[in-house]
Design a protein that fits this description.
The structure is a single chain. Helices cover 43% and strands 5% of the residues. The chain is mainly α. The protein has 2 domains: 33 residues; 133 residues, Cytochrome Bc1 Complex, Chain D, domain 2, CATH 1.10.760. The chain has a two-stranded parallel ribbon. Helix 2 crosses helix 6 and helix 5 packs across helix 6. The radius of gyration is 19 Å and the shape is globular. The N and C termini lie far apart (69 Å).
Length: 170
């Protein structure tokens, strides 16, 4: 018969189960906090085209730079294809789960969340432009169109851009 790890010897067998349940619940809460309904991008029109991610708020070159930064700084936890990692409690950054969490929020909210929490244990260690490039890569990965100007790193500007998963009316 296998012995319990030293830290659990002499304790009830329920304690490791309780610890696991608390960790699992915390992970679930983190992954679903701020979630919204809805799937990936769609071509169904909504209003307010000028303040939408559908107006081309980043450039392809910026998104390519962001992809390189993402690969160096983020992919180990979030996956090379943005699939997330349940073992690390990291959410997917593309597709339905991304839109559930970020649909209806501002690009500034996404930028600020990444800037203040990532990379883990080194939050805020990248330049504003590098964080903006990573956000641009996420927008591209979620099938939002590129434009003619780089996404800025100024939070006040980013907060005016709405993350909608539906193309606005012209």
């Amino acid at each position: 018969m296998k012995r319990a790890p030293a830290r659990f010897r002499g304790q009830s067998a329920a304690i490791p189960l309780v610890i696991w349940m608390v960790a699992f619940s915390a992970c679930s809460a983190i992954r679903t906090r701020g979630t919204r309904t809805g799937g990936g991008p769609s071509q169904v029109p909504t209003s307010n085209a000028t303040n939408s991610v559908w107006s081309g708020v980043y450039t392809l070159a910026q998104a390519e730079t962001g992809e390189a930064s993402f690969t160096r700084q983020c992919a180990w936890c979030h996956g090379h294809v943005l699939e997330g990692n349940e073992d690390f409690c990291t959410p997917p950054l593309a597709g339905v789960e991304f839109w559930r969490r970020w649909g209806g929020s501002s690009v500034g909210s996404l930028y600020e969340k990444i800037q203040t929490t990532m990379p883990e244990n080194r939050a805020g260690s990248l330049s504003g432009d590098e964080y903006a490039a990573i956000v641009s890569f996420l927008l591209k990965a979620n099938e939002l169109p590129a434009g003619q100007q780089d996404l800025p790193s100024e939070l006040s500007t980013l907060n005016r851009l709405t993350m909608t998963n539906r193309r606005p009316k012209p």
